[in-house]
Amino acid sequence: MKIETVDADVLCIGGGIAGLMAAIRASELGARVVVVEKGSIGYSGAARMGNDHFWAYVPEAHGPDMRAFIKECMLTQLGPMCSTLSSRVVDTWMERSLEIVKLWEEWGIEMKYQGQWEFAGHSFPGHAMTHLKYSGHNQNIVLLDEARKRGAVAMDRVMAFELLGGAGRVTGALGIDTREDRLVEFQARSVILCTGSTRRLFLGVTPALIGNDTRPFTLTGDGRAMAYRLGAELVGMEMLARHVGNRYFVRSGQGTWIGVFRDPYGRPLGPYVAEPSRRYGDITPEVDKSLFARVMESGGGPVYMDCSGISDEDYEYMRHWLVQEGSAPLLNHLSEEGIDPRKHPIEFMSYNFASIGYIRCNEKGETSVRGLYSAGDESTFGISGAAIFGWVAAENAAAYVGESAAPAFDGENARTEEKKRLIETLQNRMDGTDWKDANIALQQVMSDYAGPVRSAPMLEAGLSHVRRLREKARNTLRAENRWELTRCVEVLNLYDLAELVFVAALERRESRGFHQRADYRMTDPLLNDQVLIVRNVDGKPTATWREKER
Amino acid sequence: MPPVIDLNECIGCGKCVDVCSEDVFFGTKDFGKSIEHKPVVTYPEVCWHCNLCVKACPVAGAIRLRIPLAMSVAYKDGPLGNS
Ligand code: SF4
Ligand code: SF4
């Protein structure tokens, strides 16, 4: 296998919103930037189909009190998703949101509706509106163009899978070409991880259709796994999240629907709206993402999104935003099947649990490893977080590159050689486990032992099983071609993350959110301001409590 | 299972192969870089149904998504409250 060396000041790993924003900003600050993407850049990541909601603090709409705005945001789904972030991170996010919104508008992503700021959906009636509506259908392509204009180099179809460095500092990364027989050694002064969320750790809605998910199949938490192995701190690995959406065409975008969630008798499930509201949507499932699952499990379902009574104008408005949001394939399916949401109430459900642990970052996007930054769904949440922290992390990475001495690459050869051998072994085994078997084995044990019901004996049993499976996977995985090789490397990353989920879940001896311990049923108020950090100490995952920074 | 290509219509331009991040069309000869090499659907079960391959295709009707039965939307054929 040939090894190619690529040199950069700033290496952005992942070419979605965060990676492209980072590439744009670091390039315009004078850094030599490479952005590496395992899929097709401009057409990759969770946002590639579009989006229509952006958390943005716009003083002319919200008034001068940013605290009040943040408080309102925390009542929505942002609250639980951001419970491990310091308030300085959240402040930076909101302080800089309007600046980014204006840049996007300038670049050709429509951030206004009919010439005005438009806020709608995801809101409590009578409260401040936190979600800016925007037309995100072209966002990835627009950002890719801007990155290229500034001289960033985009490298497609290469999966970065291991960071290089040591002694608390990053010096580059290794990547495999997902189509050809090639290993790429990136020598970089700074690395910004932007690999998105972690899928395929828990079973999905349709286990046999592993791609039927709210996020694409290729998002496997690679950044978290790489960061962990190099020694960076992860946070909240024990926590779970779930989305709500229509049954069974798994999609995000629930907040774009205009209607009321009702039971079969037509009774609203939540207290917020009784008639369709274009302004507010129906925020009920965001308050309790498991509500629809409980209603169904207790025989009170199905749960419907009822759009009956909606005006023609509002119906067109909803369809417009569903297209911007990336739900055009769903709308096509509805029309092919003759389903008209105004006449045919559509079933909604609580989707399966997924892992949400983050790479721990400060308000500069810095991790605990020097030169290593992170942005996007692996350290915050949603498009707005990805855009803003991609930008912020790049500013700090570029400054770091300017100030720090060039790293020495001596001693990296051993790591490159070791990983090269791993890749060759996966490719050359004549007989063995395929990636899918290894992936499903992992998903079933995660769902059974580290899902919404947990206890020490269950977590310990699950952890032992995962460790045994990982050992077997390492010794038997086999790739038929480069596509399968990429999957094998992803699955090995997922096994590393699985171990961290168990270790952290064992350490959190309380119940909180979706982490429910049968042996510790209470929520411990003494842990309200603590975060649980997981770190690699001499090859062993170690969980420690730490006071949450202000 | 998705996507479905009409080989009579397809001109083998490779655009769908280029945009798919999941590389559902992996194994297409030279990845569609030659006009002769029409896409093959190798890994349909990982498709995200994102429609980007359909949008990228220059020939109307050459490629479409077939939604698996397992993903069919569940709905009620009439108003609520009359069960
Ligand atoms: S719909 Fe999306 S994931 Fe499926 S084949 Fe087309 S581009 Fe790939
Ligand atoms: S984009 Fe359309 S015409 Fe081009 S190879 Fe794909 S299906 Fe054929």
Descriptive report:
The complex is a heterodimer of chains A (550) and B (83). Helices cover 37% and strands 18% of the residues of chain A. Chain A is an alpha+beta fold and 550 residues long. In chain A, helix 8 crosses helix 17 and helix 15 (435-449) runs parallel beside helix 17 (482-507). Chain A is globular and about 65 Å long. The relative contact order of chain A is 0.16. With 83 residues, chain B is low in regular secondary structure. In chain B, strands 1-2 form a two-stranded antiparallel sheet. The model of chain B has no long low-confidence stretch (mean pLDDT 92). The A-B interface holds A 37-40, 42-45, 48-49, 157, 178-179, 206, 208-213, 216-218, 246-250, 262-266, 302, 304, 306, 308, 326, 328-330, 332-334, 336-337, 339, 343-347, 481-483 and B 18-23, 26-27, 31, 42-43, 45-52, 65, 67-68, 70-81, 83. Bound molecules: iron/sulfur cluster (SF4) (2 copies). One iron/sulfur cluster binds next to helix 2 of chain B.
What characterizes the major β-sheet of chain B? 2 strands, antiparallel
In the CATH scheme, the class of the domain at 420-547 in chain A would be Mainly Alpha
The level-1 CATH class of chain B: Alpha Beta
Helix-strand pattern of chain B, N to C?
EHHE
Residue fraction in strands of chain A = 15-25%
Strand content of chain B is: under 5%
| Largest interface: pair, residues per side | A-B, 55 and 35 residues
The strand order across the widest sheet of chain B is: 1-2
Bound molecules: iron/sulfur cluster
Q: What is the residue-mean pLDDT of chain B, rounded to a whole number? A: 92
Helix content of chain B: 10-25%
Tally of strands of chain A: 19
Which residues of chain A form runs of ≥5 with pLDDT under 50? Answer: none
Helix/strand structural class of chain A: alpha+beta
Number of helices of chain B: 2
The CATH architecture designation of chain B is 2-Layer Sandwich
Shape of chain A: globular
Number of individual domains of chain B: 1
